[in-house]
Amino acid sequence: MARHHxxxxxxxxxxxxxxxxxxxxxxxxxxxxIDPSEVHYYQPLWTLVGGGLAPAGSTARPEVxxxxxxxTWIKDAAMEIDPDDQWVGTAASGRVGYxxxxxxxxxxxxxxxxxxxxxxxxxxxxxxxxxxxxAPRTWEFMQATTSGTAVFAAPSGAIKCxxxxxxxxxxxxxxxxxxxxxxxxxxxxxxxxxxxxxxEFAATLMQVIDRxxxxxxLESEVIEVNHERxxxxxxxxxxxxxxxxxxxMLHVVPPQSAPDWVKATPLASADPxxxxxxxxHTMQHxxxxxxxxxxDASSTPNSKTGAAIRKQAPxxxxxVLAVAAGREPSAEYHGYSSCPIVTAHNRMxxxxxxxxxxxxxxxxxxxxxxxxxxxxxxxxxxxxxLYWHGMLKGLA
Length: 396
Known about the structure:
The protein is of the alpha/beta class. The chain has helices spanning 14-25, 46-50, 63-66, 135-144, 164-178, 199-212, 260-263, 306-324, 373-389, and strands at 3-10, 31-34, 39-41, 60-62, 72-74, 78-82, 87-90, 95-103, 108-109, 126-127, 148-153, 184-189, 215-217, 220-226, 231-236, 241-246, 249-251, 256-257, 291-293, 337-344, 347-353.
């Protein structure tokens, strides 16, 4: 082995840094984080960047600035895992041995799964807030759209921040209305049979849809883009038919999965998406007791959000320390997730729920099933502060 550490964390994103910080606060010293990134992003603000409500630069900080003190940073990419001999293979730094492994490499954006998208991203009115370099282009295309149809689409399957495709549609509809652009039609293409799984939030979102006059297409998905004709090919699964929609602008979200290299490891589940196969409550791998996973690449069936990671991280840390001490893991994660859905330039709906798809409000004195200005302030200013100064330091 090139080196060995007691705790090895794959991924220096939200999950990896949060777990590393919590392990340090628990008194652990021999911790390594494997990640090649120079920049750390607060991705939830990318929607606001795309809506012209936040600068892209405000979402980024140097990775070194968020790495916990005295944690070894292996600035390299993980490429393989051998859970039997307990090592992680890297692109350039050799093998890294471990006693305990926490796998949180993030999620892979599978642009190639929608033919025609990769060739036109960032051009011809086609963009996506799922890349920080493209989010400003979304705002540019929105400003340039004065007529025609603005299409906003989400793919089937699990994606990070499942509400993001809706958020930008509402911000665009709000912008077009405030600009008096009545000639622009907003179409929202969603794969589910309902706009949201929790009835109380779904009812409010349907009011938003009605207020803006959005053309909502449920049980539908954009499966191809023809940029020469400015056409999105939509599959209507309810009626098993395809049709073309001519767009003036198109916000597209790619299907997503675990990174390809993770899919090739013994840690992957049987699911074709290749998620790291963990117990949904303890976050412990189902076959390898000294391996844990959290965040977007794990197999837990919650909505993949930073808020979910905030609740998963303490469970992972408590349980990995229990296993290290020879005990069984006892801490449990119950599927909490939060989806702050921005519905206008100054309003937000805070959707909090768990595995049972029931409301789990963390601010009981406020009715978060309604659009609120104070929740907008939380989204724009409160949550970023909580992220940078609390969560990444192992304090929240």
